[in-house]
Amino acid sequence: LKWLPFRWIAPGLGPLLPARGEPAAPDGNAAPDPMLARVARVTGLLAAALPWECACLVRAMAALRVLRRRGRATTLYLGVRRRSGLEAHAWLYCDGRVVTGGRERPEFTPVGRFGGAA
Predict the structure, then answer these.
(1) Which of 39, 59, 82, 84 is the most exposed place for a label (fewest CB within 10 A)?
(2) Residues forming a β-bridge with 89
């Protein structure tokens, strides 16, 4: 992401759609999805092991590629918040569940999404 313009990367994320809110959380009685938990865990472990910083967008894009290769529909959200300046965040949904970026997500207002309909 440091060397390529985002406009070159964006088409691989899916169609850009308006934010329109986020998907409803799955029913509280729904069984956990082991694949989503594994992808979230491994994405975090790999990001921590790399010698460079893996920001939220990089993590979300990595998880998106892994899940789409396995035939899962994903939606990558981009959001902003205003603090001392404008800050951005990315998080990934699959089947109504946040896979990456979930801890910080409530503090950001979604401004766009890539991928499936929510």
Answers:
(1) 84
(2) 79
CB–CB of 18/109 below 8 Å?
no
Q: Quote the pLDDT of residue 38.
A: 94
Count of Cβ atoms closer than 10 Å to residue 6 Cβ: 9
Backbone dihedral angles phi then psi of residue 83, each to the nearest 5 degrees? -125, -115
Structure tokens at 72: 């899962």
Spatial separation of the C-alpha atoms in residues 105 and 78, rounded to whole Å: 10
Token pair for 115? 């991928």
Report pLDDT digits (tens) over 55-74.
899 999 999 999 999 999 99
The angle, 0 to 180 degrees and rounded to 10, between the axes of the packed helices 56-69 and 34-49 is 140
Q: Report the distance separating Cα 15 and Cα 74, nearest Å.
A: 12
Asked if 16 contacts 112 with a C-beta cutoff of 8 angstroms, the reply is: yes
The torsion angles phi and psi of 107, rounded to 5 degrees, stand at -85, -5
Tokens (6 digits) for 31: 């069984």
Specify the pTM. Answer: 0.82
